Amino acid sequence: MRHFLDFERPIAELESKVEELRHLSNAGDLNIADEVARLETKADRLLRQTYAKLSPWQKVLVARHPERPHARDYIDALVTDWTPLAGDRCFGEDRAILGGLGRFRGRSVVVLGQEKGSDTESRVRHNFGMAKPEGYRKARRLMELADRFGLPVIAFVDTAGAYPGVEAEARGQAEAIARSIEACLRLKVPMVAAIIGEGGSGGAIAIAAANSVVMLEHAVYSVISPEGCSSILWRSAENAQEAAEALKLTAQDLLKLGVIDAVVPEPLGGAHRQRGEAIAALGDALERALQPLLGLDGAALKAHRRNKYLAMGSKGL
């Protein structure tokens, strides 16, 4: 059964009526095709109108949709000969970050991805996509591996942020994130990152300081979650919607500011409605972003990254 967000309730009611009528039609001799077609047209029109004017807060809700494709879905569909690699060679394995070797459109690559999980068991196993220091140290290890063997790096970003627990801080969370960002910036191979859901705080930037950053239409990317921002500024999470407006966290705002390089359109109603179509579109966008970088040498790639981040924020001001 499809999960509907609060602002989608009118759409849910229409689609529910369509399903009821189809069930009645299949159960008997009733011919209600015209009524079904009318309701389908009305539901489609309402869906288009709703998603054409989503507020920043509504985009946050879509980015967090439980049925939205996650890193594992993109890797399974876009990467062949996938060989996962585990551990940071220091403390242990962190399942919040997937990493390994594979082929993307026939080219050998190193892949990183933050995995939230799709049900209660997998969400707990992947710690809801919130990595601990060992996760970022694993990412750094794999980026160094990519550098050693001349393999491009592709990263799928989807996290509310790095894990904020005491044990993570005790093991050097801030240092691990900083070192991971440093590893991104020092790479002598092309790196492309995709914001597929939530891009939250340093936990996202740790694997997103790439030559090119693409972002799905209804994903969000911000230094802090709206709830966290609201809690700091208003001492309550009740102003999360107002915070979302101020944070400029939508793909459209970030493209204007030069924080990202391209917006990838999603199927009508969000990536969760047409998962295969959304995954294929992102695959095409990643290939377009990667192609011009393949002809650059290590020094040029580092300079490209440096210039990109020094110029960030100058657009749209």
* Helix and strand element order: HHHHEEEHHEHHEHEEHHHEHH
Q: Could you please say which CATH topology of the largest domain applies here?
A: 2-enoyl-CoA Hydratase, Chain A, domain 1
Strand content: 15-25%
Cα Rg: 21 Å
The CATH architecture of the largest domain is: Alpha-Beta Complex
Low-confidence stretches: none
In the CATH hierarchy, what is the class of the largest domain? Alpha Beta
General shape: globular
Largest sheet: 8 strands, mixed
Could you give the count of β-strands?
8
Structural class: alpha/beta
For the record, the count of structural domains works out to 2
Provide key terms for this protein.
2 domains; 317 residues; eight-stranded mixed sheet; 14 helices; 2-enoyl-CoA Hydratase, Chain A, domain 1; alpha/beta; 16% strand
